[in-house]
């Protein structure tokens, strides 16, 4: 709500937003989904489409039907391990798994956001290994400074948690840890259901801060001004989280800022030998100790040894190539 129905975002790119209906309870959300999917299908069924890309398990039937109707290639670009997310429980998960099993083999292209998730999809559904495209952000040239905004001295350690303030990200643990370590600062950049808890701690402890979210294009430069990022995903939760490559990981590493992370296989793979001392086996028992141990020299050592990440332009090349090849094969002339 509040966004335009049509928005031009580039010389040859326009977003068309299709409204659903309003409703907050289960039946309202169900009605919203059905109304929205019907409106999408009716709007685009007669258009000359090259690609129909599905980003959510619940829209697989719509996208498959629309691709068949228009002769477009059908692409599945899930943003996580869809059916194994923490929100998928009981009948909801059963239905999601049934939909994915039915439609994923029809897709001309399947992508995944981490190598382990790609392997899971390939093994689970006996399909070719999906194209892996990690969410490595682009880097803006602007340089806002959260450190200056919060009046934190360059000599003081500054940690940052970026992204939604929701469960499963060790936010209570982070708050309790920094309440015990007044010599180090932590800033939460984001909003979400746990915002009030963060605000309460921020009003009590001078070293705990919160600022509104930045535009994604500004976040990497923002993280350059931070000493350490926090990527403490709850690995005891859903399989999707254990196999994830979180956005907050890349937001920090693209700025060459080290990350204290829970024990995620994708993080160990990216950090290599640097994982020692930065990846925690048991965050509940180790976070306090590591915050007390890390200093400016630890940060400098990481930055001097980290080999960096590919750019978004490089990361997206395999997916772009897969799209172009599928479109070529699907065209009347081949």
Give a structural overview:
With 334 residues, the protein is of the alpha/beta class. Helices cover 43% and strands 15% of the residues. The protein is built from 15 helices and 12 strands. A 6-stranded parallel β-sheet has the order 9-8-7-10-11-12, sandwiched between helices. Strand 7, helix 6 and strand 8 form a beta-alpha-beta unit. The mean pLDDT is 91.
Order of helices and strands: EEHEHEHEHEHEHEHEHEHHEHEHHHH
Radius of gyration: 22 Å
Termini distance?
A: 42 Å
Q: How many strands in all?
A: 12
What fraction, in percent, of the residue positions are helical? Answer: 40-55%
The low-pLDDT segments are none
| Count of DSSP-assigned helices | 15
How do the strands line up in the largest sheet? 9-8-7-10-11-12
Shape, please?
globular
Layout of helices and strands:
Blueprint: E1 6-10, E2 13-16, H1 26-44, E3 51-54, H2 60-70, E4 73-76, H3 90-103, E5 109-112, H4 115-125, E6 131-132, H5 146-149, E7 157-162, H6 171-179, E8 184-189, H7 195-204, E9 208-211, H8 216-223, E10 228-231, H9 239-242, H10 247-253, E11 259-262, H11 265-271, E12 279-280, H12 283-293, H13 296-305, H14 312-315, H15 317-330
Parallel strand pairs: 3-4, 4-5, 5-6, 7-8, 7-10, 8-9, 10-11, 11-12
Antiparallel strand pairs: 1-2
Helix pairs in contact: 1-2, 6-12
């Amino acid at each position: 709500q509040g966004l335009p129905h049509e928005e031009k975002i580039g010389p040859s790119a326009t977003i068309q937003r299709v409204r659903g209906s309003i409703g907050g309870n289960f039946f309202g959300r169900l009605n919203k989904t059905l109304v929205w999917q019907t409106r999408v299908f009716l709007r685009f069924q007669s258009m000359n489409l090259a690609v129909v890309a599905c980003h959510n398990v619940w829209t697989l039937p719509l996208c498959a039907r629309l691709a068949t109707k228009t002769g477009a290639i059908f692409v599945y670009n899930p943003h996580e391990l869809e059916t194994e997310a923490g929100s998928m429980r009981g009948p909801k998960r059963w239905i999601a798994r049934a939909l994915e099993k039915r439609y994923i083999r029809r897709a001309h292209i399947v992508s995944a956001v981490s190598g382990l998730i790609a392997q899971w999809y390939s093994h689970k559904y006996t399909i070719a290994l999906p194209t892996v495209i990690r969410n490595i952000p682009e880097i803006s040239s602007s340089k806002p400074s959260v450190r200056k905004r919060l009046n934190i001295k360059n000599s003081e350690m500054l940690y940052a948690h970026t992204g939604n303030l929701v469960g499963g990200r060790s936010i209570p643990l982070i708050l309790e840890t920094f309440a015990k370590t007044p010599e180090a600062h932590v800033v939460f950049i984001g909003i979400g259901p746990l915002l009030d808890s963060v605000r309460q701690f921020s009003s009590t402890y001078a070293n705990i801060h919160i600022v509104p979210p930045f535009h994604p294009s500004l976040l990497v430069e923002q993280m350059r001004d931070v000493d350490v990022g926090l990527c403490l995903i709850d690995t005891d939760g859903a399989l999707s989280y254990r196999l994830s490559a979180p956005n907050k990981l890349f937001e920090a590493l693209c700025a060459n800022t080290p990350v204290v992370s829970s024990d995620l296989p994708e993080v160990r793979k990216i950090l290599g030998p640097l994982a020692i001392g930065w990846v925690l086996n048991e965050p509940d028992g180790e976070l306090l100790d590591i915050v007390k141990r890390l200093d400016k020299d630890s940060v400098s050592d990481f930055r001097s040894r980290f080999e960096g990440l590919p750019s978004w332009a490089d990361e997206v090349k395999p997916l772009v190539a897969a799209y172009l090849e599928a479109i070529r094969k699907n065209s009347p002339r081949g």
